[in-house]
Amino acid sequence: MKVTKPLDRWYDDACGTAHALELLGERWSLLVVRELMFGPRRFGELREGLPGISANVLMQRLEGLEGARIVQRRRLGSPVNAQVYELTAWGYESEPILQAMGRFATRSPTHDPTLPFSVASLMMSFRTMIDPNRAAGVVARVGFRFPNDAFVVHVQDGKVTTVRGESADVDVAFASIDAATIASIVYGGRPLADAEAAGALTLSGGRSVAKRFATLFPLPPKVA
Length: 224
What we know:
Elements: H1 16-24, H2 29-36, H3 43-49, H4 55-67, E1 71-75, E2 83-87, H5 89-92, H6 95-105, H7 119-129, E3 140-146, E4 149-156, E5 159-164, E6 172-176, H8 179-186, H9 192-197, E7 201-205, H10 207-213
């Protein structure tokens, strides 16, 4: 792939950590990668997942990530006929960085879970926060439907795999108005019935599976 612009050198330091920051450390860059972790996205879809970013800054970050060979552009054929951005094979290797940072930051007393929360962020949090001990013996396929997106989360062997899209072959399906509603159930202990009564959630399928699923992602204790 052609490099679109030279990579900025901030540190003049051969340390791999320093170079990783040069590749991914600009504001918004890691969050753009997060939004692409579950497959290709159009420019407008990326902006929807990152409501605080301007179109100009998003384009700059995409160009920088493309130049670094972390992101690539591709044109979808008929009938879609649209340009999408996607991670390269190497770009997908950055997922452990996102997970490690997520686990680290949730221990901060200043972490504010009430701030905007994208659907991709929610899906990434499941892969990050799954507790293998709590999930031991659990085998479940859980569907999630949102106004403009859908996912199937498969829990097995204490791990989570995630696929974008809908499937009828699920044990339970959450249909919600936003990611924050699901987060309030999984991470905030909100009862399912409360979210349903508020009109923020519709549940289809095994209610016991939904309740069990919501217990598999405990947050770590805050630092003193």
